[in-house]
Amino acid sequence: MSVQVWTYAFVILTFGLYIGIAIWSRASSTKEFYVAGGNVPPLANGMATAADWMSAASFISMAGLIAFLGRDGAFYLMGWTGGYVLLALLLAPYLRKFGKFTVPDFIGDRYYSRTARLIAVFCAIVISFVYVCGQMQGAGIVFSRFLEVDITIGVIIGMGIVFFYAVMGGMKGITYTQVAQYCVLIFAFMVPAIFISILMTGQFIPQIGFGSELLDGSGFLLDRLDGLSQELGFPTYTDGHRSTQDVFFITAALMFGTAGLPHVIIRFFTVPNVRDARKSAGYALVFIAILYTTAPAVSAFAKTNLINTVNNIEYTAVPEWFTKWETTNLIVFDDKNGDGRIQYVGDPEINELQVNRDIMVLANPEIAGLPNWVVALVAAGALAAALSTAAGLLLVISTSVAHDFLKRSFMPGITEKQELRYARISIFVAVLVAGYFGINPPAYVAQVVAFAFGLAAASFFPAIVMGIFYKRMNREGAIAGMLAGFGFTAMYIIYFRFINPAADNAENWWFGISPEGIGSLGTMANLAVAYTVAKFTPAPPLEVQKIVEDIRLPSET
Amino acid sequence: MADNSAQKYWKANIKIVLSLLSVWFFISFGCGILFVDALDNIRFGGFKLGFWIAQQGSIFVFVGLIFAYIHLMDKLDDKFKLESSNASDTETGGDSE
């Protein structure tokens, strides 16, 4: 069977599975719609959290990013996993004990203020919305490249599937489809990685193959890659090339941001008790680590393979995948010296090959010459990653509107049935808007997704941590802190990326911190402002201090 | 429960969190970023140590830290008997309808 037929088979099969789960898990109450009834077993929640968390970016782009960043790519690896340590130790158990439905719920109740609640609603919607557009776009790209349908039709199919299970099942439907999507995506990521590891190093486990000798006798994989890079004038793979402080601050921003992303936090509201919240954070990181420790191995395998396969060969003799990906413009060959051969080198003057980083995962199985069914897996895996994350984000938008904005802020009188209807309507509207931006992506979406982390790091993370660990923190401090952190981070990013992109280089950055890493300074700004303002304003009321004492103890009420 | 024991519980909790977070900081920001070049002088198998910690080792340590936390906190909870008696029931009965 051809790759195309296999791809269709996998995609139809997995989509059928998601629809089946959606029908089985309809939600009938707001509690089921918002937190899946609060009785998800920790192992299932761990898988769902992993799928929720690992987006199209983790699946499609991360290994490629690392392949071109070399050692510096570690800020993605450490940042996006280290954040789970913060989440597990500083947030998840306490928020579970608090026992409400959303992040603005916590901010609003802990800081006894409608203003604080509305600021949290605003931040949650901005962060989730920016992120969801990227997922829809990712789904559209996979559809158009693998199934050769129009991007528009691809996005509409993706929207239709998410719409079906998110609107029907809410958190309950999303949770159990995410469990299935985790299985699909991890299988699709691991099978090609294992195949390639065996082909190149004879090692079954890619994490070990990463540090092994190549079967062709050219020494250790990483030494060979360093050697090839040097020969061709690329930066040495295993050395760092960005400034230490920039890597430091980007890693910190990604960690704080991971711990502050509302769609990840709300997953911990779905387990039965505090013990299970801790346990499911551990399971989630195990499931994530399987992919995250494989990704850097894939980067090294793919980069070596790519250089070996394409450098200095006759253009007329290129393998089939090369021409196929050329038609999508992910690979561009320009025979500058007219010798009919491909020169893939570090010097931009004589380099003739432009390679999009997404190729490293999308075309990796083809480059390594793996069987058709393995090549076809990638599409189903990438779609699972994109759709599972999109669904989690859409739920945050929906609960923010129906629960926090309407029910808790402006229409406290509505019945549960009405609230549920508003939740479904807002998911519907959010899907449509996200779909629109998926089809007509604004040029800045890809850039802005990374900044969702900076904004989450500077707004939610400090406000929640202080709400738990600093009893004296009051309404005035928290509001001032969130505004300062969010405002500072947003302005820094907007200035360097949109107002004055020409100045976007290390010389003009504050302390040499790039806009990707500025969220960590935003976190500090939030903490400093909040602490100072709280010092000069009245302590929180006694009943709020009682809430804090209560969430610190894990006993169920 | 008496306020006193709640305070003791919270202090013990803070101690656990701080000690685990110092390992977290040392491995990721310390070994993975600040001292990475020095550690790169040490080799094992095909890896330079600093590079390996930055791209693989730190992640294994993170997983270990969360499981250490789960274990230590469960022990602490048992010591202060703060878990509700039905916690174990809901754990096994969590399979949704």
Along the chain, the helix and strand elements of chain B come as HHEEHH
Strand content of chain A: under 5%
Shape of chain B: elongated
Number of strands of chain A: 2
How does this structure look, described?
The complex is a heterodimer of chains A (557) and B (97). Chain A is an all-alpha fold and 557 residues long. Chain A is 72% helix and 1% strand. In chain A, strands 1-2 form a two-stranded antiparallel ribbon. In chain A, helix 7 packs across helix 18 and helix 10 packs across helix 13. The longest helix of chain A is centred in the N-terminal third of the chain and has 51 residues. Chain B has one domain. Helix content of chain B is 76%, strand content 4%. Chain B is elongated and about 55 Å long. Chain B is mainly alpha-helical and 97 residues long. The interface between A and B is large, with 64 and 51 residues.
Structure summary:
With 557 residues, chain A is mainly alpha-helical. Chain A has helices at 3-24, 30-35, 42-53, 56-69, 74-98, 103-110, 114-146, 151-201, 206-209, 221-232, 244-260, 262-265, 274-310, 320-326, 359-362, 364-367, 372-410, 416-439, 445-469, 475-499, 518-535, 542-552; strands spanning 331-333, 353-355. Helices cover 72% and strands 1% of the residues of chain A.
What key phrases describe this protein's structure?
heterodimer; A: 557 residues; mainly alpha; B: 97 residues; two-stranded antiparallel sheet; 4 helices
Secondary-structure map:
The complex is a heterodimer of chains A (557) and B (97).
Chain A: H1 3-24, H2 30-35, H3 42-53, H4 56-69, H5 74-98, H6 103-110, H7 114-146, H8 151-201, H9 206-209, H10 221-232, H11 244-260, H12 262-265, H13 274-310, H14 320-326, E1 331-333, E2 353-355, H15 359-362, H16 364-367, H17 372-410, H18 416-439, H19 445-469, H20 475-499, H21 518-535, H22 542-552
Antiparallel strand pairs in A: 1-2
Helix pairs in contact in A: 1-8, 1-17, 3-8, 3-13, 3-17, 4-13, 4-17, 5-11, 5-13, 5-22, 6-7, 6-19, 7-8, 7-17, 7-18, 7-19, 7-20, 8-13, 8-17, 8-18, 10-13, 11-19, 11-21, 17-18, 19-20, 19-21, 20-21
Chain B: H1 3-34, H2 36-39, E1 43-44, E2 47-48, H3 49-80, H4 87-92
Antiparallel strand pairs in B: 1-2
